## 1
Amino acid sequence: MPLHFKSYLNKPSSYKGGKSLSEVSSDKKIYKLSSNENQFGSSPMAIEAMETSLKTLSLYPDRTDHRLCKALEQFYGSVFSADQFITTNSGVANIEMIMSGFLEEGTECIICNPAFGAYDDFARKFGATVVDVPLVGNDLHLDVDAIFGAINEHTRLIFITSPNNPTGTYIPKDQVDALMSGVPDHVVVVYDEVYFQFADADDYVRGIPYVKEGKNVIGVNSFSKAYGLAALRVGYSYSTPEIARYLRQLQRPFMINAVSMDAAIGALQDHEFISSTVESIHRERDYLYLHFDRLEIDYWKTQANFILIKPTMHIAEFEEKLFRGGIMIRDAGPFGAQDCARITIGTREANQLLIETIESILY
Ligand SMILES: Cc1ncc(COP(=O)(O)O)c(C=O)c1O
């Protein structure tokens, strides 16, 4: 008898994540602008907390995530209680946990490409059918009516992302309102807001008010981006008491390692690091806009810590030439943005080199 591999699991993953520096070789200093990491370092308060944590590595961590959830409750000004948070080993692990709670063979999951590659890949690994309702127009906005048209009795999850990866665009409040008011009761909206700290548009909205209203919404967050803790793999989500109770049953004992938990708790208090990171990103975003305009490069205005551009050169060649110049960027094709490159906003030094290199390869 052959082994009983699940057919939908028995295929290579399409979502692989960006290359790490150890995977590439170059005799030059490489600026890694390919994974939307914080180019300004990590929260000092998180590092301090980790240093203390390192002294007790022989002990198991807390059995549950209660301390981190309490810290989140405080961080959110008690808008939610501690048991409305679900912490995981990264944002992607949170997405995977949500999917394991709601998807199986015969169910459907709506995504809106261009989107974060994990949504499509992970949903298929749970045997679900992925229904793509692409973003539309030059401004890549959400097609709310088309989403309503795609919902049926098999639909379980809708993924929306604001600010969105890889486009950097956001979903204005009136569109989120329209979506949330028309989603039927059997469907959960997963609102991925891992880049929320960078958004400064007046009509940007998070998932918080909708969860407060009792809608079936899960707000997904990560410590990898603004807090600069990508290496530690900590993420969390918040939701209604009913959904959070359900998802929390999927957690394992000792799931969050002690160093990561202490770092995350420390990071939540580090308002200064977040403000200085966000300030630097906005300053450097303006610098890049200025030069992209001067060089007549097409790009989308961003609310995140990266920018999607459409260079007038084949993307593989563009990526290769930038790498030879010392800069790693990401081909956004696999995320559904053909012929586009996603570039993390760097330090001034990195951005200057980026602009000089782009200028020399395109002109
Ligand atoms: C939109 C989006 N959601 C979730 C994540 C997951 O982040 P992490 O797994 O590092 O917490 C990412 C990472 O790039 C992302 O871009």
## 2
Amino acid sequence: MKIISIANQKGGVGKTTTAVNLGSALQIAGNKVLLIDLDPQANLSSYLGFEKIGQYDNPTISHLMMSCVTGMEVYAQDCIYHNDTNNLDFIPSDINLANADYYLIQAVAREKVLKRILANECFQTYDYIIIDCLPSLGILLTNALTASDGLIIPVQTQKFALDGLTMLNNIVQQVKDAVNEKLELIGVLATMVDNTNMSKSVLEQLSEKYGDRLFDTKISKSVTAANSSEQQKALTLTTSKLGKEYLELGAEVAKRCGK
Ligand SMILES: Nc1ncnc2c1ncn2[C@@H]1O[C@H](COP(=O)(O)OP(=O)(O)OP(=O)(O)O)[C@@H](O)[C@H]1O
Ligand SMILES: [Mg+2]
């Protein structure tokens, strides 16, 4: 089993789109995949239709994470939902996850809460668990990185794209040094690539900075991404260019994960 975080503290770079479509690509290739929404904005949850099926009391990742502090009994199995359209299992999020910092400060070994949750037997049958991180550096991100084998960083090939990557690399290094030696950078993914000089220049800089860790697959800029989340159907299930690119990404990730 491989646990992969999709992370970049910069907002709107394509993390959620990548989590859903990479998950779908790996599922289509025959893997059992679980997606975890670790963002209080809960965009992945709505991409997978959770708003529709979810009622207020349906347990989410925030119930699971906070149960370690509150002592409230929450079963991991009860937090796993299935989306039929995309044939994907997922754990949704909700706005209460925004209070995680406050709750987790009281937890023992607070960066290991998610890791402890994922040690549960019900997660061991998955080939891939993909964690969609929130756009910030903090306790939820360190939980994701501590629980993960690998990390994928989507980078939007637009102005200011590389700002903040040093800070992210710094956190990754700290997690590696302190709690999770095996954490590796699976790859950096260029997203929203277009024909502009800006896009070309960012691609060059990424190639220089990350070398062979930059995925060969590039994700183009296309309005089909927004349509896909609106229609709650992965791009990989359509004939779109982005769908094809995400299928290619799936193959590249599997290869890098030795599968
Ligand atoms: N390749 C793409 N081309 C054009 N638009 C895209 C592409 N990928 C994603 N988008 C759109 O850009 C917006 C941000 O994408 P997404 O939600 O995946 O980013 P994010 O990094 O998860 O954002 P956040 O940091 O808020 O969680 C969405 O409206 C999405 O539909
Ligand atoms: Mg997101």
